[in-house]
Design brief:
By secondary structure, the chain is mainly beta. It has 3 domains: 90 residues, Immunoglobulin-like; 90 residues, Immunoglobulin-like (Sandwich), CATH 2.60.40.10; 107 residues, Immunoglobulin-like. It is built from 1 helix and 29 strands. The protein has a 6-stranded mixed beta sheet, with no helix packed on it. It has a 5-stranded mixed beta sheet with strand order 13-20-19-15-17, with no helix packed on it. A hairpin with a 4-residue loop joins strand 22 and strand 23. The protein starts with 8 loop residues before the first helix and ends in a 7-residue tail after the last strand. The N terminus is likely disordered.
Amino acid sequence: MSINRRATPFVTLATTVVAAVAMIQCRHSPTAPTTPAVSGVTLNATSVAAGSSGQGTVSLTAAAPTGGASVSLSSSNPAVATVQTPVTIQAGSLSVTFTVAAVAVGTATITASLNGSSSQSPTLTVTAGPALSSISLSTTSVVGGNSVNGTVTLTAAAPAGGAVVSLSASDPVTVPPSVTVPAGLASATFTISTRAVGGTVTGTINASYGGASFSATLSVTRPTVATASFGVTGPTESGTCTLATSGTTLNCTFNGTTSTAPGTIIAYDWSYSVATATPFGQTTTGPVLTNPTVNCSLLPPPPLPPGASSFTLIVKLKIHDDLGNVDETTDSGSRVLPHGACGF
């Protein structure tokens, strides 16, 4: 005898409700956030020269959480390569780059660690970097007050970022503190300045880079003839004077410090004019004349020629030393701006 039992409508409804509630609960159950771990460490180059640097990248298995991820870095051989630690991967990012400084010849690996995970980079090989091989001068003797050129040369091309060669010199020679050999090149030039001397004095120029040092000597001599030399500088640019104080002075400076003579220069005779006008003149015992005195007769009558904004200024300098030597020079490359004075 068989008995057929049919589920009542109530039982069917109850079963459906339970299943629906379970499905809703599953859908709204919070998902635990994925904890990021280090997935790898790469290097943009596995061989770099000592004294230069390379780039590395740390990657994660998941995006960094809010607040970012602080990844610890370490070098297996800090005497060969070093890294700054930690580095921070910004929230939502999967990677960050870092700098590897190549210190000395050898090999090293970089390890990144986060949340108990770690990964090691490929082996980085640091090769011998370029070093200084020589220093040379454009001349070995110069009259004091003049300049010469120096050249530093490396054993190989400078690395990325260039090679900064340290410089120094002894009196009466002056050099910049350093000169940079551009990346990919093996040499660079720099300017050597000297001061006037009363006799022959030898100065030494020193250079060092990559553990190597070299020096060169420069003989600085007393001039045998007088040489007048000067420059004109204005308030905002060289070679430009402006009329000031209602046309009674020139707002500029005449500088004759580059003049030289066998003896001591005792007089600087300055003469300055525009076109064919009668020159103005002043004599100084020192090499600098500031705000030369003039009046409106320096300039032709107004107005300025069509299309012109200035007049050509002719400046002359004659020097005298205590041994009777004399020299004179002329500069016609400067200009005067009226700036509303003397009727302009």
